[in-house]
Amino acid sequence: MHRKRIFSVLIITTAAGLLAACSSNEKRLAEPGPVVSGVQTEIVHLESAPQLYQAVGAIRSANTAVLAAQLAGTVREVRVQAGDRVKRGQLLAVLDDRGPQAEVQGAEAGVDEAIQGGAEVDQALKAATADRQFAEATLNRYKALLAKNSLSRQEFDGAEARYQSALANELSMEAKTQQIKARQQQARSQRDSAQTYLSYSRIVSPLDGIVTAKSVDAGTVVMPGTPVLTVEDTARYRLEASLPEEYVPYAKAGDNVSVSTEHGQFEGRVAEVVPVAEVSSHTFLVKINLPPDCNCRSGEYGQASFPIGETKGLAVPSSAVVDHGELQGIFVVAADGNVEYRLVKTGKTFGNRVDILSGVAAGEKVAISQIDRLRDGARVEGL
What we know:
3 helices, single chain, Elongation Factor Tu (Ef-tu), domain 3, CATH 2.40.50.100, conserved putative lor/sdh protein from methanococcus maripaludis s2 fold, alpha+beta
């Protein structure tokens, strides 16, 4: 009997606890949600939206310079590594320059020789000019004497012959002067050519940027055309995206398009549509200039949205969409102000609006402000 009484007491106690718990749950369920004021709403309706084609591609520098050797020789020094930032005109690598140096020295010697020869010819021309002037003056005096019969014909002929000889010598010196000037010009051209050839032994950066590839090391033997370094411009980047043939008419140079990268959304401008299709995919390459503040790097993924028409659908402001992990939802506000959190499936984003593919119907009202204060079961005040 004692055990039966204890057992009965336990049953009664347990039942009382369950009833109390149920009463507590019912009380919690019956509790109203928070009342939120100042909530702005928007009625969902069908609206026109651009139909977009997402062209994917990779980001590249708008200006990439592959610095190759222009003479055969051995690499003496490489002063940079991949990843180093460089300035325009900065010396990046040096090749063996003994051969070009010898050519420069020989060309300079040729210039000196031509200059020296020019000085000698100038002196000879001055002397020839003086002889011609003296012979001409003598001939003129002899003409006057011959007219007065104060001079024999033979003496006059001798003076005339000396003048013609002096004139011929002067003309010869003038011709040599022109020849020596041409020789000097040729020698200077050879020197300039040798100096240019010597400059090929010094590889400098043609732009401000970053070294993206180092192809040789000190001691490497290179031939003309051997890549040494690659430098890319970090101030301007492009998205190179593939566009199917049927959508190429929608991409024209100068058009603005929306570009998405891992750093966000940007407005790009079509720079070029390559008019040759890729053989295997039958797509065309579109190059899109990106803004300087895109924080891009070569090789990153990106996509461009090309408008190819219009479509109708439901859309809400992007601010109305609430993310919970991989799920997205919106707060639907009923006519009586009650709030329901509803999962939705979103589509493409255009501007500050996003397509809603499912989860809400036209005519329903959604909250677009005070989102952080709302929750399922809340009540909106002041509608």
